[in-house]
User: Which sequence fits this backbone?
């Protein structure tokens, strides 16, 4: 059937009789009729591609399955789109895709954590050395990282994917590091006028208080103890959580106005009803569980309660412990009691745990610490009786061993034995102490409070409950999570929300499959989203990370650990934390929930994948985040080619193509250069076409500029200081992108397809300068690379007015044009605003054209002169210029016995231009387009002449990799070889100050023109070059009124912002 | 077509005259009865030192003043590549294989000046151990039926006159004279010629479709991107008789109404490209290519396009993409090349050998062609016979000949002391057939039914020293690496299959792995976009079909029966047999062997890299190779 035949056809798809036009494909027809045939590579409206093989269908009469996208419809055709045979094949291909998909959909750690901290995000911040930023991310979900980071049960770490490579990332210790290296901050919300009483100042109550204060509510916390903290202060020993850490972490609460009332017990000093009567709008009960609930063992009258023991030790009271101690229980409290007993002088401590080592309630870390300290543990035993000796003192504990079969625990016959003990500590299970208020709130059969899991709402209006009081003794992190949820719920309730309805929705939501949850999430609203517990589904796949062991945590010596109560874990230094954070695999995909591969994977049940056997090949590609808006993470690429085709056939620039063959096939830019060097017009079509998370908008980076509108006080401070005037515009991503697109279109006045070398800085510089104005532009270029490569007769890459001039007189020529313009305008023959821009290389500017430049500037023409400085005469074969750095090789500053490259320092042309008294002079670099465009815009708006000196890396002359040009420019700025600054009416201003000034060596090493400097005998030349850069930098800092480098570094260090460890600098 | 109906017409006379004018008899080499020395200048002979031989020959003739009397012709490939450099002395046709420059003087003295043979230098038939003097008596040639390669060994491929002297371009002239393109297609269709590139599509039918499809232009493309490991049939045609290809393409172009052609040749065939260019220049100069060919009004010209070494560019749609300057990637076959091919125009794409068959068919008629071959497969097929067989080289046999005829007849069977294990047909897309199938006739249908395929004609014979797992791994590795990466079954599926095979070869495979391998093979075949992926699992599948026991030995007993898979073998020294001669001690590249002279030596298993050197150098057969669970376990323990 030829596609050109005109007659209509009738075909049957899945039993449905359908009409179609000849020349249509089965896929098009099926999709139009609402029959879903999966496909990853098909882009509606574009020619069929046929690569993903997921659209295979059965066509009657054809032995082989046919790809629906490349099968024309024909009359009488019978198609089936979903049969077991098809599903098997689709599943197989999805398994293949996922076996080479070195990325997760979601981070399992964040899912496993009861508070759902965005762990990958804070790890990324820590890797950058930004401890305060990391702590802020943690505090969005967990207010006390310094506390919980020391005592958490760590549900996150066992699921960490890093564990499949070597060890899980030390996630818990990393919140602690974030807190240790920053100061806790709590910004109270706009006062709401509502008052909330929190009964119980433990982890749940304090966490709730934190988030309530953040939402502007007034909080009073009641507690039976003298100081706040609850179990954190009174049952966790000092050697795990030092008191001063606790106080420091809680301090922001009191600073933010939370009132703490001590020695007040629920049911004794206060009652719930009383508090409501007293004018509180809501009450949160978070009293924890402190009463022993277990049936008493024979002889238990002689037993010491673990919590009592721990509290006494915390309070500094004297506690007597005999030599031989037995602890009954397997929870954290049991181990804490045992370790405390060791420190109090017990020589033999035995823990009688009812479970085996792998299932101990206390985590592996605490168990290991206890064992290290000489505590013995009997696993799988049950205490039956405490045998009493003389004077009713304990003599031993009679135990029986436990066995497990089919999930049931049984005592093993004839396995009774006795553990000798003169002190027996009980750490079994606990229930809340509710005083007389037990009647005010409903209780469960376990004697705990009844409250909704999501909101903490009890059946009494205005009364909420959270933490161990609801759940019985559980870990701190559960209490914190529950506290947070209750705070959010109370806030919503105070605002008039219907919590009952939300709870019902959440209960239904939790039972749904993952993808439906994602689809439904929007219906839950913002609060529902935060309260929801998403059933985590992620697809298993390979990891190609290089093994790197977990960073070791410095600890107190073992000998000291049985005598003193110093904190055992000393914590990570910031450098160690950065190192550890770099082990994070960033298992999070910006496209999760919006990814076709994920959707199909879940639909076809591909959650485990036997194709990923040990030794399986996995393609691993470095992610590219250089583009301001488009992130490329090709580990997530399925090579469907949609971006390739859409960019080439729809958008035009053809930024992408396939590279490599076979398994190593990849999608990349031509020459593997940065995307913005590949004629990208930032249209975003590639991102919208990408079916996975390989191409995404860089929204996360843009979000960092968002204003928290609820807290904005309209002071305009930020608008005034914003260097790019962005805050006058909008803070919305779409608009920001459109704005940038407009600018990009202006830059396209220099068209792509010019003949500059791959990786040349000059055309990028020229485009970014052109992005600085929307007025018509007259460009003049001195003879040089930019000129010869953009205007090869009879072609030109310049879309607007362009005048080519001789090597030395670009400025003179343009000043003539500008004068003519002024004359015509005066006569009324021209009305437009026209901008005049001259481009010259450093040869034409520093050397031969200096005279004409100086003249034009001095005469005050309305023009901008741009020098693209690549540091030599490049198009004639690399001769030295006045801009060539000392020591650099060129053909006229050769390397040999007599000299090692150029002998003289480069001259400071920017200073020379400043000395002309211009109203605007600046230095810029193409690696920072925002800065460059802003400077160009400023220069073009300045009355009279202005000058920009812009670094333009030259891969040929610099003897460097063309794909690294932008990075080389960035590095030149970070070494302070090429400082970014501007001089406006004589005022110097540094527009960018690197956090750490890096050594010149790394930059020089990447360029062949300096290769000889690294040979023996040239150490002096190298040192001279560094000294010259240092000297120039200090001079510039003085002019800009900036602190000298040494003082700057000290200040950064003092603020904990010195991100680069000494060994990297 | 043998006899045109329009005999005597003015047109025919004009064309015949033009053809005659194109021929310069004085430049052609004389017939076989003249005193003449034919030196094979095929790539293989060139590689075995042909240049030195022909230099010595020229010098010797010069010295004896025979330059004018004796003609030396550098010919195309003679076929028995293993025995190069080959020199044949006419008129008798005395055959001298494996010649060295130092033997030339003696040969000239004896066989050129005199009429004797140098017994010592004659070819010895490995099967019968008899000396054979004349080329025509060599069993390797005797068993063949040469249509396409008939004159390759007797003409100078750089001389158009040699080709013309043997009736070359006569078929073209006939066709042009008759001026009935449809009749040409009828004739080719009736001959039963099927594409020699692998799929075996009827050539006449393809031409007809192409002719029927409307377009601004019709293109004729020759696929010379021969990339199968061990295959060099097309190269031989391109190098040895380029004009036969040009003539075939010209006839095809005339038949479908094309005026522009491309020959897509691998960059790895520099000699082929040079000879083609030379042939095209000559043809243009004589009015046989270009505008108004032989004054007939028909115009056709050809360009050469060199491939950059991608195997997938042998696939028709990838090939056209490559000519268009795009990445060589196949596309869905719903759009036919005959309708929308190169630059979107109707395009006829055939393999080199297919085109080379056409002049013969036109000259001798479809019936003569039909008389050769089987019911469904007509004519002959060229195979490159390689591997562990005695005579390796290019073999042209009629369709329907059995594998036994080729391997044991023409190929002379296996080398001394070895037994036949399998023959791999059709390159990486084909399959390995066992001894039971040796009597299968070679035709498209039988081979496909057996799990192999005709392919372009690669034929690799292996003996009992080849491990079938290792062999399958080799072919699969090739296709996995050569996949263009476009579709997922081929890009990832083949690699995952390869990983399973690697596990099996390392003794780490499981029974489940074998089942998974079969399932994956099915998934890859079913889903691949083009035939590269669609046939890539064939070597694995045939291995599992015919040599499953051997595969299971690897899996279950960690035993490699052929003792090839290194993780499963262990080299030891038989202390009884070892004389302590110290030879292996010196030969071991990693110093894994220790021992005093005249004392039995030992191999340090930790150091041993299983390179087989010690076994090869041992004169006392004292290095047994062990395999199996015990050997592996012991090797690991030590």
Assistant:
């Amino acid at each position: 059937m030829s596609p050109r035949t005109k007659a209509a056809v009738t075909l049957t798809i899945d039993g449905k009789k359908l009409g179609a036009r000849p020349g249509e494909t089965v896929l098009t027809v099926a999709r139009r009729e609402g029959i879903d045939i999966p496909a990853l590579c098909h882009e509606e409206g574009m020619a069929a591609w046929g690569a993903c093989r997921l659209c295979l269908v059965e066509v009657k009469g054809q032995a082989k399955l046919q790809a629906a996208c490349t099968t024309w419809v024909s009359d009488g055709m019978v198609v089936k789109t979903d049969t077991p045979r098809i599903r098997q094949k689709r599943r197989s291909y999805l398994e293949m895709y996922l076996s080479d998909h070195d990325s997760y959909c979601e981070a399992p750690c964040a899912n496993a954590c009861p508070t759902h901290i965005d762990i990958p995000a804070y790890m990324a911040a820590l890797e950058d050395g930004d401890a305060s930023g990391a702590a802020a991310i943690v505090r969005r979900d967990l207010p006390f990282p310094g506390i919980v980071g020391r005592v958490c049960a760590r549900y996150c770490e066992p699921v960490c994917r890093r564990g499949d490579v070597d060890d899980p990332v030390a996630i818990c210790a990393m919140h602690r590091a974030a807190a240790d290296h920053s100061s806790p901050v709590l910004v109270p919300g706009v006062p709401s006028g509502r008052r909330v009483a929190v009964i119980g100042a433990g982890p749940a109550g304090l966490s709730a208080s934190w988030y309530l204060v953040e939402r502007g509510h007034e909080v009073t916390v009641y507690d039976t103890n003298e100081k706040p903290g609850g179990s954190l202060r009174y049952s966790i020993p000092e050697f795990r959580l030092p008191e001063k850490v606790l106080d420091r972490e809680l301090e922001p609460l009191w600073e933010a106005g939370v009132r703490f009332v001590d020695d007040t017990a629920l049911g004794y000093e206060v009652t719930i009803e009383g508090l409501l009567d007293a004018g509180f709008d809501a009450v949160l009960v978070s009293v924890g569980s402190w009463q022993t609930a277990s049936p008493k063992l024979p002889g238990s009258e002689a037993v010491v309660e673990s919590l009592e023991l721990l509290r006494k030790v915390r309070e500094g009271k004297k506690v007597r412990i005999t030599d031989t101690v037995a602890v009954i229980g397997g929870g954290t409290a049991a181990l804490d009691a045992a370790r405390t007993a060791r420190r109090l002088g017990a020589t033999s401590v035995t823990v009688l745990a009812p479970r085996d080592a792998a299932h101990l309630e206390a985590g592996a870390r605490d168990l290991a610490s206890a064992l290290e300290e000489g505590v013995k543990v009997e696993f799988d035993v049950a205490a039956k009786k405490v045998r009493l000796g003389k004077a009713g003192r304990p003599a031993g504990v009679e135990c029986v061993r436990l066995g497990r079969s089919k999930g049931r625990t049984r005592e093993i016959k004839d396995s009774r034995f006795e553990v000798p003990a003169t002190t027996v500590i009980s750490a079994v299970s606990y229930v809340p102490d509710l005083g007389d208020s037990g009647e005010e709130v409903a209780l469960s059969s376990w004697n705990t409070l009844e409250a909704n899991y999501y909101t903490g709402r009890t059946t009494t209006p205005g009364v909420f409950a959270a933490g161990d009081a609801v759940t019985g003794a559980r870990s701190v992190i559960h209490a914190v999570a529950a506290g947070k949820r209750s705070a959010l719920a109370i806030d919503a309730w105070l605002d008039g929300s219907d919590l009952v309805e939300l709870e019902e929705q959440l209960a239904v939501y939790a039972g749904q499959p993952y993808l439906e949850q994602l689809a439904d999430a929007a219906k839950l609203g913002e609060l529902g989203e935060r309260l929801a517990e998403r059933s985590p589904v992620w697809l298993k796949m390979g990891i190609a990370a290089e093994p790197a062991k977990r960073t070791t945590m410095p600890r107190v010596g073992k000998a000291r650990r049985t005598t003193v109560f110093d904190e055992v874990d000393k914590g990570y230094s910031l450098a160690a934390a950065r190192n550890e954070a770099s082990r994070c695999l960033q298992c999070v995909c910006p496209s999760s929930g919006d990814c076709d591969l994920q959707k199909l994977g879940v639909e076809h049940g591909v959650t485990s994948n036997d194709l990923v056997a040990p030794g399986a090949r996995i393609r691993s590609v470095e992610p590219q985040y250089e583009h301001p808006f488009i992130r490329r993470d090709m580990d997530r690429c399925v090579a469907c080619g949609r971006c390739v085709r859409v960019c080439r056939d729809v958008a035009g620039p053809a930024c992408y193509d396939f590279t490599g063959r076979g398994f190593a096939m990849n999608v990349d830019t031509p020459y593997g250069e940065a995307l913005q060097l590949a004629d990208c017009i930032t249209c975003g079509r590639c991102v919208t076409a990408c079916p996975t998370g390989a191409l995404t908008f860089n929204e996360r980076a843009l979000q960092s500029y968002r204003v928290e509108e609820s807290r904005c006080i309209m002071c305009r401070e930020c608008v005034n200081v914003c260097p790019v005037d962005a805050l006058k515009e909008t803070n919305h991503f779409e608009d920001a992108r459109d704005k940038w697109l407009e600018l990009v279109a202006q830059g396209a006045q220099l068209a792509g397809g010019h003949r500059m070398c791959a990786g040349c800085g000059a055309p990028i510089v020229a485009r970014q300068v052109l992005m600085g104005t929307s007025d018509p532009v007259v460009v003049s270029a001195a003879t040089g690379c930019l000129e010869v490569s953009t205007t090869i007769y009879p072609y030109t890459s310049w879309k607007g007015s362009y005048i080519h001039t001789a090597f030395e007189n670009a400025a003179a020529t343009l000043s003539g044009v500008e004068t003519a313009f002024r004359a015509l305008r005066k006569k009324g023959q021209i009305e437009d605003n026209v901008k005049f821009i001259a481009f010259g290389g450093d040869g034409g500017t520093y050397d031969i054209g200096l005279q004409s430049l100086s003249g034009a500037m001095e005469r005050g023409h309305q023009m901008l002169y741009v020098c693209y400085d690549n540091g030599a005469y490049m198009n004639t074969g690399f001769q030295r210029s006045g801009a060539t750095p000392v020591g650099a090789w060129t053909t006229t500053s050769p390397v040999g016995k007599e000299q090692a490259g150029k002998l003289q320092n480069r001259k400071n042309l920017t200073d020379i231009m400043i000395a002309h008294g211009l109203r605007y002079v600046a230095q810029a670099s193409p690696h920072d387009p925002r800065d460059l465009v802003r400077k160009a815009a400023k220069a073009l708006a300045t009355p009279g002449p202005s000058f920009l000196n812009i670094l333009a890396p030259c891969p040929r002359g610099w003897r460097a990799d063309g794909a690294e040009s932008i990075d080389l420019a960035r590095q030149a700025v970070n070494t302070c070889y090429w400082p970014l600054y501007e001089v406006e009416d004589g005022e110097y201003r540094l527009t960018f100050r690197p956090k750490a000034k890096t050594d010149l060596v790394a930059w020089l090493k990447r360029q062949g023109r300096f290769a000889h400097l690294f040979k023996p005998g040239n150490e002096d030349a190298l040192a001279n070059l560094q000294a010259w850069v240092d000297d120039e930098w200090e001079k510039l800092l003085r002019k800009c009124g900036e602190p000298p480098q040494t003082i700057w570094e000290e200040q950064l260090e003092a603020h904990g912002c010195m991100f680069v460890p000494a060994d990297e600098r | 077509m043998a006899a045109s109906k329009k005999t005597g017409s003015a047109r025919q006379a004009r064309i015949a005259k033009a053809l005659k004018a194109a021929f310069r008899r004085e430049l052609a080499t004389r017939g076989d009865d003249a005193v003449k020395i034919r030196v094979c200048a095929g790539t293989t002979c060139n590689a075995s030192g042909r240049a030195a031989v022909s230099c010595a020959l020229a010098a010797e003739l010069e010295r004896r003043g025979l330059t004018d009397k004796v003609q030396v012709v550098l010919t195309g490939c003679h076929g028995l590549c293993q025995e190069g450099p080959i020199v044949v002395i006419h008129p008798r046709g005395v055959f001298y294989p494996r010649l060295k420059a130092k033997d030339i003087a003696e040969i000239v003295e004896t066989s050129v000046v005199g009429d004797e043979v140098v017994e010592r230098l004659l070819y010895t038939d490995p099967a019968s151990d008899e000396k054979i003097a004349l080329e025509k008596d060599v069993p390797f040639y005797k068993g063949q039926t040469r249509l396409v390669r008939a004159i390759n060994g007797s003409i100078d491929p750089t001389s158009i006159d040699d080709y013309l002297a043997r009736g070359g371009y006569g078929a073209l002239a006939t066709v042009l004279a008759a001026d009935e393109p449809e009749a040409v297609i009828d004739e080719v269709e009736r001959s039963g010629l099927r594409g020699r590139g692998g799929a075996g599509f009827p050539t006449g039918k393809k031409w007809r479709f192409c002719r029927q499809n409307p377009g601004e232009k019709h293109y004729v493309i020759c696929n010379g991107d021969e990339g199968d490991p061990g295959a060099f049939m097309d190269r031989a045609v391109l190098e040895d008789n380029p004009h036969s290809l040009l003539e075939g393409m010209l006839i095809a172009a005339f038949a479908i109404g094309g005026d522009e052609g491309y020959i897509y040749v691998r960059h790895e065939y520099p000699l082929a490209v040079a000879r083609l260019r030379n042939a095209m220049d000559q043809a243009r100069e004589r009015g046989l290519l270009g505008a108004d060919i032989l004054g007939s009004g028909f115009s056709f010209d050809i360009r050469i396009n060199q491939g950059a070494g991608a195997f997938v560019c042998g696939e028709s749609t990838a090939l056209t993409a490559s000519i268009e300057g795009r990445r060589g990637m196949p596309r869905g076959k719903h759009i036919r090349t005959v309708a929308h091919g190169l630059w979107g125009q109707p395009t006829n794409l055939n393999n080199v050998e297919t085109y080379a068959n056409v002049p013969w068919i036109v000259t001798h008629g479809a019936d003569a062609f039909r008389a050769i071959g089987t019911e469904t497969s007509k004519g002959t097929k060229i195979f490159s016979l390689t591997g562990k067989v005695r005579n390796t080289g290019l073999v042209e046999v009629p369709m329907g000949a059995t594998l036994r005829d080729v391997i044991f007849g023409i190929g002379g069977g296996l080398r001394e002391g070895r037994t036949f294990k399998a023959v791999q047909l059709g390159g990486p897309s084909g399959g390995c057939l066992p001894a039971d199938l040796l009597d299968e006739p070679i035709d498209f249908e039988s081979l496909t039914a057996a799990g192999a395929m005709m392919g372009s004609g690669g034929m690799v014979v292996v003996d009992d020293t080849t491990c079938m797992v290792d062999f399958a791994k080799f072919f699969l590795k090739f296709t996995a690496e050569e996949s263009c990466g476009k579709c997922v079954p081929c890009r990832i599926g083949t690699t995952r299959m390869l990983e399973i095979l690697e596990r099996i070869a390392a003794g780490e495979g499981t029974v489940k792995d074998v089942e998974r391998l079969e399932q994956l093979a099915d998934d890859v075949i079913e889903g691949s976009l083009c035939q590269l992926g669609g046939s890539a699992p064939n070597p694995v599948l045939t291995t599992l079909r015919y040599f499953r026991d051997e595969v299971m030995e690897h899996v279950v007993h960690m035993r490699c029966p052929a003792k090839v898979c290194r993780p499963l073998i262990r080299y030891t020294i038989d202390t009884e047999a070892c004389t302590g001669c110290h030879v292996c001690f010196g030969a071991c590249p990693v110093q894994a062997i220790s021992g005093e002279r005249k004392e039995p030596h030992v191999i340090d298993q930790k150091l041993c890299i299983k390179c087989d050197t010690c076994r090869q150098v041992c004169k006392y057969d004292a290095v047994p190779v062990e395999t199996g669970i015990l050997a592996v376990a012991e090797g690991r323990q030590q």
Q: What stands out?
A: Chain A has six domains: 9-82, 108-184+544-581, 195-290+433-497, 295-428, 619-703, 760-1064.
